[in-house]
Write a structure and sequence with these properties.
The complex is a heterodimer of chains A (115) and B (619). With 115 residues, chain A is mainly alpha-helical. Helices cover 70% and strands 0% of the residues of chain A. Chain A is elongated and about 50 Å long. The N and C termini of chain A lie far apart (55 Å). Chain B is mainly α and 619 residues long. The chains are: A mainly alpha (115), B mainly alpha (619). The interface between A and B is small, with 10 and 9 residues.
Chain lengths: 115, 619
Amino acid sequence: MRPVIPYVVAALLFGAGVYGVLRRRNAVLVLMAVELMLNAVNLILVTADTTVRATLPHGGQVFALFVIVLAAAEVGVGLAIVLQLYRLRSSVAVDTVRLDAAPASELDEPRLVRE
Amino acid sequence: MSLDVLGPLLPVVPLVAALSGFVLPLRSRTAAAALGIAGAAGAVVVAIVLAVRVDEPFETVVEWVQIGNLSVTAGVRIDSATTMVAVAVGVVALAVQVYSTAYLHDDDRYPPYAAQVSLFTAAMLLVVVAGDLILLLVGWEIMGICSYLLIGHDRRLPEAPAAAVKAFLVTRVGDIGFLLGIVLLGVNAGSFWITQVLASLPGLPAATVTAAALLLLAGVAGKSAQFPLHTWLPDAMAGPTPISALIHAATMVAAGIYVVTRLYPVFVLGDPSLVVLGVMAVVTVLIGALAATAQDDIKRVLAWSTVSQIGYMAAALAVGAPAVALFHLLTHAAFKALLFLGAGSIIHEVGSNSMSAMGGLRRRMPATFWSMTIGLGALIGLPPLAGFWSKDAVLHAASSAEAGWLPGLVYGVGLAGVLVTAWYAGRLWLRTFFGAPRSPGASAAHEPSWPMTVPVVVLAVPSALLGLLAFADDFGARLTPFVVDVPEASLSHLGAETAAPLAALVVGLVLVWALWRRDAARDPARFLGPLRSTFDNAFWLDTVQDRLVVRPVVALARRVSSADQRVVDGAVEGTGQGTADAGDVLAAWHRAGLPRAATALLAGVLLFAFAAALYGSAT
């Protein structure tokens, strides 16, 4: 087997994920890009498990399983936040979330802001 | 009771009275008066017992603190001169306490006042008996703070706080020298115990002794109001009149002269110091006497006369006659306390300090008149009153001292001083008691109540008779401080040379009488012509002091204060402000939106990865 092919595919996947995180404005798509990066890592773990002799056998595969579970939980939390964001602002564009504005009044009384 | 107990008891008795007086509530006047009078009376009794029983000098020494090689002792050192001065201090303090009960009858802060007077007395007695330089310094400094408190007692007077601060600061200037002198002596002698200091003097380098003597002289000039540190004394008249009597007669100004007699060998060995003291004394005698001629305030006349009389004492010290200086100190204590208390009675009745509001008080206040007449006669040296013998002794000491130009100068200025003293004392006497009353207060005046009259009359006795002690056999020997290698002074010497001061006195009196007789309602000082305002302002030395010292110091202080606020405070506050600003900038960076935060995160990860790769390839 040629491990180069899955490695290159994983790198491409990871690059696509990074590009998505940096360039996408939609929060849901940003989350999907993060999933891409996680799956790239999973691919590397599984590939490496077959090519590298480890002290613990099949550690890579087990680790990939863990990552999948964690990713599922993470997506649940992430989507909940996105949903809350949409309720708050009726928009999920990440670059319109102003972090340098004074947040105090928003904390006091959450309200819809139409722009 | 043994002498070892009685000696330390002398300052402790008024100290206890003072400390218990301070805790009394403001309304308990009677208790405060009783405490004050009891403290002073106790001191008088102890002092008299000591004066009777002490023939040979004795000391008690207890080691107090040991600092490295230096030992500080607590103990008294009493000889017969000490007991005499202590009796004078006690008697004057007692008179002042009795007098104050009536003089301050409507004062709402009488209890602390009485306690402060007791503390003042205790401090002076501590200086008188102290056997150790540090103990002496303690008394010396307590007197400084007491004079500040008492001069500023009358808060209704606008000038009182300024006068109190001035007295404190001017004497403080001298006290710095005094402290340095004590340290210099103590460190070089290895002990602050006066006996040991004096014993180790011959072994010390001459320059050290001279420096110590000159530094001590600065403190003496400050406390005893010698030129150029005399300016506080006339202003101190803002205090209540009994306080003036206390400061001028027995405490404070007497302390400087007394300390010089106590440490006389230091000044004899520290060669030019006695000459410096003599020059200071001569200038002081002249300034004081001339300034007294033109004052209108009766208390200021007496204040300037104190300056001039203390000059006589310093002059006696300078020509090598400490016993004579102490003799004049004792007689001066008697008649100056009398004069101030008498003047206080007059001010109390007339309601004004100004002599132009007095006149014709001879018939209305006969007891005060006769007592003041005795006091003024003693001041100008009218035989056979006390001042005659002591001033004559000063002049005799000057004329019989050998060596140098100083005794001649002292003698000449002393004679001139006698003339001017007779003139201004005569002016005060005529302006106050003779002629027609010049104000409603003066025409309604009458003798004050007994607590004010009795001390004045009682003090007239020593003012008249104290000089006759000069005929006692061993009086000169008793007044000579026991450490001093000077020939025992004979204090009484009537002879042909007595004629010179008497002639000067008669000239002064006749002159002022002739001038006054032309128009009894007007001030003889008007004949001083253009000199009058110069004398009235005491040669403008206050202005000179203001221009040369006060203003530059205040300007410098302002600069330093603003430099402190701008540079030092600015550095501290600028550091804080800069940190807060930098924090704000960093906080603004941290509030980035998600895209920029993600980019920054990626950049960071790449940077670390690159660094790790570089590090990995290097090893």
